[in-house]
C-alpha cells in the first residue's frame, strides 16, 4: 500500500497445481478488496498431505527434531515410507474386494434392460434387419 491506496493483484494460478477460482469469470464493481477464493482439488489435498508427511519424515531422519524414537529405531524410521505405501495398498485391495463382494443385484434394472433389448430387436426386425441364428 502506498499512502492509503490499495493495489489489487489478480493471480492466475495454474490448474495443474489444483487451483480453481470460484469467481474467475465474474466481474465485481465494488471497490472493496477482492480476494481470490481458491478451491483445493483432491490432487492438491493429497500432494499437500504428502509434502507435510515427507517434511516430518526427513526432519526425523536427519535428526533435525531430536527424540528417543529416531535414535532407538533408525531402520524402522528409514523404512516408514515403504511400510506406509504397502499398508495403503493392502487397504485399497481389501476395500475393493469388500465392495465387490457386497455388490447388490439390481433386478429392476436388469428387467428394464432386457425389455429395452427386446424393443430394439423388434424395431430392427421391423426395419428389415435379420438376426443370425444361434445354435
Give a brief outline of the structure.
The chain is mainly α. It has two domains: 1-23 and 33-72, no CATH class; 79-128, no CATH class.
Description:
- The protein is mostly helical and 135 residues long.
- It folds into 2 domains: 63 residues, no CATH class; 50 residues, no CATH class.
- The N terminus is likely disordered.
- The longest helix is centred in the C-terminal third of the chain and has 22 residues.
Note the quaternary state here.
Answer: single chain
**Strands side by side in the biggest sheet:** 1-2
Shape: rod-shaped
| Low-confidence sequence ranges | 1-19, 23-37
| Approximate strand percentage | under 5%
As a percent range, the share of helical residues equals 40-55%
Radius of gyration: 29 Å
Number of helices: 5
Number of domains: 2
Overall number of strands: 2
Sheet with the most strands, sense and barrel status: 2 strands, antiparallel
Kindly, what is the distance between the CA atoms of the first and last residues, rounded to a whole number of angstroms? 84 Å
Q: What is the string of SSEs from the N terminus onward?
A: EEHHHHH
Structural class: mainly alpha
- Mean pLDDT level: 77
Amino acid at each position: 500500500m502506498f499512502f492509503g491506496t490499495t493495489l489489487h493483484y489478480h493471480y492466475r494460478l495454474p490448474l495443474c497445481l489444483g487451483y480453481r477460482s470460484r469467481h474467475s469469470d465474474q466481474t465485481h464493481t465494488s471497490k472493496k478488496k477482492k480476494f481470490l477464493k481458491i478451491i483445493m482439488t483432491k490432487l492438491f489435498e493429497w500432494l499437500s498431505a504428502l509434502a507435510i508427511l515427507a517434511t516430518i519424515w526427513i526432519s526425523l531422519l536427519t535428526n533435525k527434531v531430536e527424540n528417543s524414537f529416531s535414535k532407538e529405531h533408525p531402520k524402522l524410521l528409514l523404512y516408514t515410507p515403504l511400510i506406509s505405501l504397502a499398508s495403503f495398498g493392502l487397504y485399497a485391495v481389501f476395500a475393493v474386494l469388500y465392495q465387490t463382494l457386497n455388490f447388490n443385484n439390481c433386478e429392476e434394472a436388469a428387467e428394464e434392460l432386457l425389455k429395452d433389448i427386446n424393443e430394439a430387436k423388434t424395431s430392427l426386425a421391423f426395419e428389415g434387419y435379420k438376426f443370425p441364428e444361434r445354435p
